[in-house]
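User: Predict the structure for this protein chain, please.
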Amino acid sequence: MISLLRSIALVLLLSVTAPTLAADREHKVVYHINDSTHASAALNNIRNHLNASPKTRIVVVTLGAGIDFLLEGAKNQNGNPYEIPVQELAARQVEFRVCNNTLETRKIDKSLVLPEATVVPSGVAEIARLQIEEGFAYLKP
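Assistant: Here is the predicted structure, written as structure tokens:
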């Protein structure tokens, strides 16, 4: 009987603490951008994501035409520089990563990448690594 009561108490304790533990867990999300024409919408999604879930760790991985908004002087369709929202999100701990394969293929000097971004050897390999090794969820806006 004592064993049964202990089991019931343990189940009750777990049912009360499990949702709390899940809510306290850090969420990790990788946003994949391969087309800078969607960068403004993606940056808004990321801002909204952080507003709804401030503890989320977000990494933005760019490749192909998706790197363009992370280059010096890049502007959105309204003529506003991307640098400002990128700086604001970086201040909120969002990490930006740029594919070196794309830089090399397009003959773009690394010095043109915004200082808030890090160059990684391969964008697709970085996305896979984040998902497999670090448990990141994948989003493609």
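The longest helix spans residues 2-24.
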